[in-house]
Amino acid sequence: MVLARDIFKEFKEHSVSEFFRKNASMLGYTGKIRSLTTVVHEGVTNAIDAAEEAGTLPSVFVAIRSIDKDSNHYKVVIEDNASGIPDEFIPRVFGRMLAGTKLHRNVQNRGQQGIGISGGVMFTQATSGKPAKIITSTGDDDGISYNEVMIDVNKNRGKIMDHKRLEGDWRGTRVEFEVKEVIYQRSRYGPYNYLRMTAIANPHVQITFEEPDGSLTVFERATEQIPDEPKPIPPHPAGMRADGLLELSKNTRSKSVGTFLVNDLSRFSRNKLKKIENMVDVNLDKDPSKLTWDEAESLVSAFRKMDFMAPPTKGLRPIGEENIERGLRQILHPDFACAVTRSPEVYHGGIPFIVETGLAYGGDAGNRRGSEEGGLEIIRFANRAPLIFNQGGCALTSAAKDIDWRRYEVNTERTPLTLFINIVSTHVPYTSAGKQSVAEEPEVYEEVRQAIMEAARKLRRFLRKKIRRKERRQRANLFEKYLPIISQKAADLVGENPPEVEPLIKEIAGVESDEKK
Amino acid sequence: MVLARDIFKEFKEHSVSEFFRKNASMLGYTGKIRSLTTVVHEGVTNAIDAAEEAGTLPSVFVAIRSIDKDSNHYKVVIEDNASGIPDEFIPRVFGRMLAGTKLHRNVQNRGQQGIGISGGVMFTQATSGKPAKIITSTGDDDGISYNEVMIDVNKNRGKIMDHKRLEGDWRGTRVEFEVKEVIYQRSRYGPYNYLRMTAIANPHVQITFEEPDGSLTVFERATEQIPDEPKPIPPHPAGMRADGLLELSKNTRSKSVGTFLVNDLSRFSRNKLKKIENMVDVNLDKDPSKLTWDEAESLVSAFRKMDFMAPPTKGLRPIGEENIERGLRQILHPDFACAVTRSPEVYHGGIPFIVETGLAYGGDAGNRRGSEEGGLEIIRFANRAPLIFNQGGCALTSAAKDIDWRRYEVNTERTPLTLFINIVSTHVPYTSAGKQSVAEEPEVYEEVRQAIMEAARKLRRFLRKKIRRKERRQRANLFEKYLPIISQKAADLVGENPPEVEPLIKEIAGVESDEKK
Amino acid sequence: MTKRNEDPREEARGHLEKFGSEILENIKNTDPPRVKVPSRSTSNIVYDEEERYYTLADKKSTRTAANMRQVKKFAQTLCAADFCKDLITSGKTATLREMYYTSEGWPTGGFSSQDRSDRIVEDIESAFGVKREDLGLLPEEDGASIFGELVVEESGMEVKATEAGRAGYTIPPTMGDVEFVACGAERVLAVETMGMYHRLVQEEAWDDYNALVVALKGQPARATRRFLKRANEELGLPIYLFTDGDPFGFHIAMVVISGSAKLAYINHELAIPDAQFVGVTASDIEDYELPTDKLRDSDIKRLKQLLEDPRYKDEFWQKEIKKMLSLEKKAEQQAFSKYGLEYVVEDYLPKKLDLK
Amino acid sequence: MTKRNEDPREEARGHLEKFGSEILENIKNTDPPRVKVPSRSTSNIVYDEEERYYTLADKKSTRTAANMRQVKKFAQTLCAADFCKDLITSGKTATLREMYYTSEGWPTGGFSSQDRSDRIVEDIESAFGVKREDLGLLPEEDGASIFGELVVEESGMEVKATEAGRAGYTIPPTMGDVEFVACGAERVLAVETMGMYHRLVQEEAWDDYNALVVALKGQPARATRRFLKRANEELGLPIYLFTDGDPFGFHIAMVVISGSAKLAYINHELAIPDAQFVGVTASDIEDYELPTDKLRDSDIKRLKQLLEDPRYKDEFWQKEIKKMLSLEKKAEQQAFSKYGLEYVVEDYLPKKLDLK
């Protein structure tokens, strides 16, 4: 028999970096094509978020350069025109997981979990053994900071392997990852399609892309308007859970439970406060930090019996119908484009979200892969960032597939149609840390369905109008062709000469009797 | 324009507990049925591992008690007979993620990532607001330790909310989780099936299960033999990557690269050392901690050109053919059972694994759900722990489905057959932290296929023998019945009386002519 | 021997000419040409409890040449009418398939599929209450074979049904032109399969039973149904139907008796409400311990539909269908061969026909 | 008019009795009863270049009552042989289906499906070189309809094919018992569809062409093939085959000409290597601009198989099949109606038959 003290000699604690190093696939580093796209994704996401936070129109340069083709060895460069990063934060931004400016705030960002860019650094050192190069300048007089960064996995800390100051007058950040065990391909899953999709969903961003063969593609911006900066949103009472409320109450600056509810929750008016007073046996004057679990539970169950306004949109940053249309037109040159931005809704835990959809018909839209002629292409986004992998298990996909497209004059096998779906939220319910697929929360699924149907109805109006125009042209021809035959054959039946039919043609082609069976 | 210093004022670091609290679904807490099964799973896994580490035959008691049926409020109790836990480790074991006795060792355990049981505590406090109760004793004279534990999510630390010493002479640990937002069901996805599967794969474990309606089920052990304790295994050179080798070289006690390779890698003999000397431009006498990335890369690429013995099994703990058969017989009472334990193999990164399969035919085996009569049931395990969810995306399932079962006399819709698959490894390649589905590593997929086919061939022998036995019995009857008819009808054709046919029957039933077409 | 009234083909030609002159009238008045066609949609098909067959109710739809979606079809209808008039005038016939191909040469252009040209024919049939056979349009297939004491005249030629060979006299698609000359039989026994037909001919059952033996060859052709109808009306013979004991066999018999929904517009020319079913029943399966097949899922589904069908509402059918469902078995008419080839002729049928 | 040799049914009875006495001999000598049956498996079916039809090669398999898997079948074979002997003796016939049901009363018990009882019949046919018709076993279906100057005698009754009604004389399943009495025609024109048959009868083409017009009704029945074979051999008439221009039509013609692989054991009684194909060809589709349908995938697959088939090896077929594949179109024989109903009779066929 082995005793506890012997067993627990082995007890050890571990860092989150160590965890993700062993479970790199959870971050999207799985497969040679996908790993490369993941590196690009993390860099570009950070770049756009940073530029927006800095209030500049994002211009992003991405290059993938082949170092040694046989050994699948590439250099990935991503450069932004954002605020730059102060030296002291470099090891933490690039070398520490679960660290960032975002996780603690209830704000919508593309990045969300403070893992992404450090994951890129980790993948770099794990495959090529090289540090990531970080060249950054905040635009002040100190010039440009050149750094080589690695992660000390055991400690979850960044290590600066080299640091120099360079001359120059520039603001922004450039990262260079030297990676191995990846493959560059221009497939649906490769960086090219990733950037094309990013350009559609971010019409204010300019992306310049250099491929390994040296060819340069510029995805021009379609608008000069920077999206409004997202604001933190207090949680919404609907669907809130007791533990969430308690967690909030511990950190509030409010002095009483009553003011806490009004100040720290969305859409909780003084009016509601009066109502809830009679519904629960909780002293609303007490110090919120003294709130007990049972009190929190009774407050939450009272919330469920009340009606609240939809959560405020100020923290959410939808692309907007106009800009989605612009993005679709700029990149796909369709015959028709439309977009829908729905009102905000809440899913489980009081988390607000907005669903946006767009449809592009004709032009370069539709499923263009292989020899197929057309068909429905679904492009998915979360907070404007493309979702490329795990299409199968995603609520956005399943909502799109469950639509009866025939009702909207669409043949999913043939119609050249691209369906754009973007979910906007302070906390997108991903199914895994790979962030490629949205969980099937019932409220989310339903909103996506509604948003698709709304856009599809607009498309249907266009398609029907198109059909009607064609019909009017055919109409006159029809009567001119067939009425003389009718006249001739009726005369043949009787054995007479056919009468003059012109007056009848005039009569009918003017006022079509629309008698139905 | 916003300046960097303003942006980075917001920079913060976060705990891993906070991360998983926001992403509970990544740990399997998703859906009311699955969440309950996940709690039971984490508790039972810990219990069995603990008993085995302590060298005692595991006896696990599991109870699910309804506290308030309407509000889906249950208490889950899991009690083991293991070594108990010293007081000072309680907050760390139950209140801290990525901590445990396992993660750092290259050892096969059911649990693996040091997250599971703390996840149970977090789920408890998030749904009911209650601490988890931990009653434990190491069996020494101090009596029994009673603790109420919660997690301080922001710090990833356990907090002892209450602590008492109780009288008593007992060794073991009992945990009590009071959870809400779950449902108890006796479905394929519920705790009952989970425990039944656990009993099959762990014939040395006795499980006593009390359901909410008070009924008690005992899954008796089928063997008194505790599996050998797993040993740490050095990594295997095949498929090793440069970063893994470097990581090892930093922590070795060996003085030279040469001795490091021999001591710290599996199956790396002196002989191999001589071979590699001529293959690489690396000074094998240098201090291993001075090894450069390029040197590590050239060593690794040399490994790939060499042949190594399969990795040692001593660290892996397969159930073994005999015990799998016992488990299947004990729980399913089949007409036939067989099992296969394959030799160890290596997948990407030098990680050794073993695949085991078993087949049970007849009795309670087969897919018994609904009105169907039989058909193939697939039960999946990883290191003996049942995999219940995400059946679809799992390499074990797809390997089983890709078999052409008809070749083995099996009709997957009708034959009453249960297929048991267990993958044993120091590091099972799960597709997500939910640990319910094995990734499609090519080497793993192929081994599973081979293992299933090997077991299926045994089954086929049985089924064919069964058919042959039946045939022999029918043989004699046949000739006795039909030869007189032949005689009679031949006589009718000619118009004679039929001749005596007995001599011919004797002749033929003795020496069957097996003439073929 | 009742004589038939005036030549149906001349009558049909009259209808077509009237149609033509109405349309000429419309055109001269600058009115959109139109024609009323009884609706053949399910909702307009009703079971007439009094007549005991399916018939069309009163709903009619108006087809007009002023409707964009109908003008081409309207022109095609006139072309088809003129084509039929030419057939009648020249005394010729054509198959529906031939008309479909001929339409390639029409000024409207051809039809995209034969379905469509067939539907135009149905429109003309139901609008003017004429049969396609009288328009000169014939199905491809011949009708049934007949053996027994019957003499007919067709195209000026007399044919004796006992002297046309062992395979019997074959009902031509042009049944409308056939005249009954003489009949020595007292009843008609129509059987589902050719096998049973040859058995009855071979055993000379036609003579023993004093019957015309008719082979329906599965679901009977329109010409066969017209023959049975006319034998019943003009010759006054009772009709007996001997089919397999399965839902398909029941259906074959019932279509002869009460008509099909699909041909509701013409059932008054086809249905024989007094025809009698003497086919294999579920009770027979039990009483004779017949070799059976298991009911398939589709059989079970079909039988359950029959239970709800107004044509099967009487006690006999309800009892037999329910019994078959509970037996879960069906049997063919040839199953009586279990007791020898002659059994069906010498024992079973005489009992069913009350000859014993 | 050539007279046929001795009664084939008596000959068949002789074979069966010999079979019985051989087995009795075996039993008396305590030898396992056995019988040799030519193998009908694909590997034993060969195309006889000289005879120009499919025939069986020399491989035979021995069925023995000493083999556990064969003894029941062996007993059933004897029951079937005895059943056939009784049919011949009593001058009766039965269908294969009737035999299947009759077997329920045999001491061996019945067959699990009719396939199996049919296969026993094929065994007896090929083992002793007799046709099933001569064993008293008949297919259910009647043969083709015939119109033209032909007089036959069956069961002591004379039948004129021009006086059996417009639908013509129907070839009975018992073709073996039919004797040709007189024939005024110079050729046989066999057509695939009933529609074309009626067209030719209506336009009196049988008279113009001096031909017997025969409706094959799709893939012809065995009785029809026997009729054509005997018309060719006994009456010395050339046979012309007019089918649709599609792989199925080609196949119908070729089975008449060279026999099918499935019936290789009996093709010497059925195949007519000199019969001539005058059906719709790919060249006709082009030359006459016929209305067509697109080839389906299954058509294309079938045509490619025909290209490899030894029966289609000559230049004519290779050219036409390849042309059809490149056109990707097929056409029916009725497609000539595009030019009016009479066109096929007045223009197309006379050219093909060299009558013009």
Notes on the structure:
The complex is a heterotetramer, with two copies of chain A (517 residues) and two copies of chain C (356 residues). With 517 residues, chain A is of the alpha+beta class. Helix content of chain A is 35%, strand content 21%. Chain A folds into four domains: 204 residues, Heat Shock Protein 90 (2-Layer Sandwich); 64 residues, Helicase, Ruva Protein, domain 3, CATH 1.10.8; 142 residues, Ribosomal Protein S5, domain 2, CATH 3.30.230.10; 47 residues. In chain A, a hairpin with a 4-residue loop joins strand 2 and strand 3. The radius of gyration of chain A is 30 Å and the shape is globular. In chain C, 40% of the residues lie in helices and 17% in strands. In chain C, the strands form six sheets. A six-stranded mixed beta sheet of chain C has the order 10-7-13-12-14-15, sandwiched between helices. Chain C has a three-stranded antiparallel beta sheet with strand order 9-8-11, with no helix packed on it. The radius of gyration of chain C is 23 Å and the shape is globular. Chains in contact: A-B, A-C, B-D, C-D. Chains A and B meet through helix 1, strand 1, helix 2, strand 4 and helix 5 of A and helix 1, strand 1, helix 2, strand 4 and helix 5 of B. Strand 1 of chain A pairs antiparallel with strand 4 of chain B, so a sheet runs across the interface.
Give a short summary of the structure:
The complex is a heterotetramer, with two copies of chain A (517 residues) and two copies of chain C (356 residues). Helix content of chain A is 35%, strand content 21%. Chain A contains 14 helices and 16 strands.
